[in-house]
Amino acid sequence: MLNVKKYTPYVFLLPSVIAMLIIIYIPLFMGISYSFTDITQRNANKIEYVIPQVESNGIITLKVEEKTKPVHFIGLKKYGECLAEPMFWQVLAQTMIWTIGCVFFHFFIGLGLALLLNKNIKFKTTYRILLLVPWAVPTYISAFSWRWLFNADYGVFNQLLKALSLEPISWLSHPQWGMFAVILTNIWLGFPFMMVTLLGGLQNIPTELYEAATVDGASKWQQFKNVTMPLLKPVSMTVVLLGFIWTFNMFNIIYLVTQDNPHTDILATFAFKEFFVKGEYASASAYSVIILLLLMFFSFIQIKYQKNESLY
Amino acid sequence: MKTKYALPIILCLTGILVGGCSNTRQVMKDGKRVITFWHTHNDEETVTLKEIIADYESKNPNIKIDYQQVPFTDAETKYQTVAQAKNSPDVFRSEIAWTAKLAALGYLIAVDNFATEEYRKDFLKAPLKYNYYDGHYWGVPDVTDCLAFMYNKRIFKEANLSVPKTTEELISIGKKLTYTKDGKDKYALFFRGDTYWFLPFLASFGGGMVDEKGDILINSQESINAAQYLIDLRLKHKIVPYLVDFANDYDNQQTGFKTGKYAMIINGPWSTSDLLTGQEFKDNNDNLGITKIPAGPKGYATPVGGHNFVISSNRETTNKKDTEHLKEVWKFVSFMTLPENEAKYALNNNLLPARHSTYELPQVKSNRFITDFKDVLETGFNRPVIPRSGALFVDMKQPYQAALMTNKTIKEAFDEIAKAWEKLLKAE
Fold first, then answer.
1. How far apart are CA B308 and CA B223, in angstroms?
2. According to CATH, where is 1.10.3720.10 located in chain A?
3. A62 to B318: CB separation less than 8 angstroms, yes or no
4. pLDDT tens, residue order, chain B (428 aa)
């Protein structure tokens, strides 16, 4: 019989390793290799024209014409083209505004609510459940609801503005208001996650530390600054990094809320259009590699920064 | 669990994972030949389709049609995915803009020798042209469509006005139909920001997208005039709502027209059944007027759209060279395009037939909506018939909408479109 003990861990790992290989690593390396070629939808596959010929006796034969176009290795040329594209820089700037805007509000709204919920207040569980609702609703339902709220003719926001005798706004089609609308939608969707995670972090802080601080005569603010903040830092850093990566690649909100407003495009939606709408496989891959490098860079800084910190 | 079972179980799971992707399609089932068909009809149209297919199956007891409804918005991507693996359905209902693209990718079978010249003669010219690419016909038209000018007859009657025939009349009459005082907000016209809605004006002002030779016309003076005209409707003459909402404007247009907020809109035959449910039209179908889009300096114009039937180059037809199968597939397609079957869609679902002889059928002739649309269709022109016509619209949308919003001048925006198209056409 097989020496089960020695092999067991590897055997158990096998399905997930194979799945990861098929689902993540092979496509990843294929994507990276595409970015060094001029591959598009039009030369990626063998192309044949099939032209049936009908003989006088009714018999059909197939005539085949070869139309395949070659794929060339072009080194870093695609990256040069992508970086020279003015739209890329506009989209990169929009991506940063979108990501930083969302994560900033996610974090501080989440932190504020977590601090409130960490106190001994009545109906705490009820509040927690209510605050989790945005997170529990399927994204596309929330996205469509918000799109409806922002509707220029029938939306609630414009009805309000009209009631206050202010100028209504073309929320979703306007350059700046469009970005405002998607960020607002995503803030609403994203803060519960931050709140729950930070609340977990807060509950892990030993109460003895607060008791000691009170004995030393520290005010509430001093307690927050010198006890809560440093002890919450590891959790905060992790959720901020996670939030950053998610939001950077967050596709559905923008796709569903403002659709084709160019002023709300972020790198993820931009690369998607390159690939699926235009069939430019090579440049979509190059953009994806650029996104990957940017995110690796941010994670690297964060991890390095976190390592140098000592807590107590 | 005993650990000695672990290895076989894990290997089994892995095997399922890897083996789960095999192709199990059968051409013959219970002694019947199975023809697979993907269509993009909506639910109401599917009722008509079911009826036609049941009719075909009863007339051809040796054939089973395995048909599947694929949502229109995903259909192109889905089809391309299966076609890459030669796993595509035998027949696909392809939108006109997809046909040349799918042909260029080698996913289709040329039908020239089935749909002979004699057969093609009966089809309207514009819808048929969308099937022709690189020397061959790659499909046959199913139904066609075009944008038309729709108006609320009651509003015109009450104001004692006639329907505008030219773009100038649209302004002068439009001003009389617009009231924005007392919070009443009634507008003469609602105009969508989608690029497709720009095409009638683009053509009637003498501009265009790309011509037959591949020359770019979008940044010509005529094209710029067309855009200027539309911007003026909104900002200078104020007969179109000031607020724009490109993400929601299709629904807003429908709602506003159904409730009488807008006197005129531009839309296609696909929208009539929805419009007829609105409060302005549900008790009086005749209140919905359908006519040609007001003529610009170069006359009436409207873009022709529609759907084609295409035959896939898949495992059965190409790899296995099953020409018997191919023969049956073509027989099915030609049945689907018979005038009496096109007429069913026309009468039940207001879809426009693509054959001359269908319009001659008495039941079609007596349908007011179809004959109204037929008049509009006479003013139709083709969109560019190139594989990447869809990509043309993608590149056009953002600069065009920026020009409508006056974030860019029209010249800047259209030069930007021209530059993007140049790159695109060169890569063709």
1. 30
2. 77-307
3. yes
4. 456 676 667 666 666 655 554 455 667 778 899 999 999 998 889 999 999 999 999 999 999 999 999 999 889 989 999 998 889 999 999 999 999 999 999 999 999 999 999 999 999 999 999 999 999 999 999 999 999 999 999 999 999 999 999 999 999 999 999 988 766 789 999 999 999 999 999 999 999 999 888 899 999 999 999 999 999 999 999 999 998 999 899 999 999 999 999 999 999 998 998 899 999 999 999 999 999 999 999 999 999 999 999 999 998 888 888 889 999 999 999 999 999 999 999 999 889 999 999 999 999 999 999 999 999 999 999 999 998 888 899 899 989 999 999 999 999 999 999 999 998 888 76
Do residues B282 and B411 both lie within one domain?
yes
Instruction: Return the CATH superfamily for domain A77-307.
Output: MetI-like (1.10.3720.10)
Q: Are residues B178 and B163 in the same domain?
A: yes
Nearest chain A residue to B2 by CA: give it.
Answer: A4
Q: What is the extent of the structural domain holding B323?
A: 28-145+305-381
- Answer whether residue B6 is part of any domain: no
CATH number of the domain encompassing residue B398: 3.40.190.10
Instruction: Please give the tally of structural domains in chain B.
Output: 2
Answer yes or no: do B110 and A172 touch at CB < 8 A.
no
| Neighbour-count burial of A301, counting CB atoms closer than 10 A to its CB (0-12 exposed, 13-18 middle, 19+ buried) | exposed
The three state secondary structure string of A53-99 is EECCCCCEEEEEEECCCCCCECCCHHHHHHHHCHHHHHHHHHHHHHH
Which two tokens mark B82? 């299966």
In a domain, B330, yes or no: yes
User: Quick one: tokens of A53?
Assistant: 């010929």
Same-domain check for residues B132 and B153:
no
Q: Are residues B198 and B287 in the same domain?
A: yes
pTM for the model stands at 0.86
Single out the residue of B187, B172, B137 nearest to residue B309, CA to CA: B137
Token pair for A63: 């005539």
Looking at beta carbons, which residues of chain B come within 8 Å of A262?
398, 401-402
B window 238-297, beta carbon within 8 A of A: 241, 243-248, 252, 255-256
- Of residues B6, B241, B401, nearest to A173 (C-beta): B401
Same domain? B377 vs B400: no
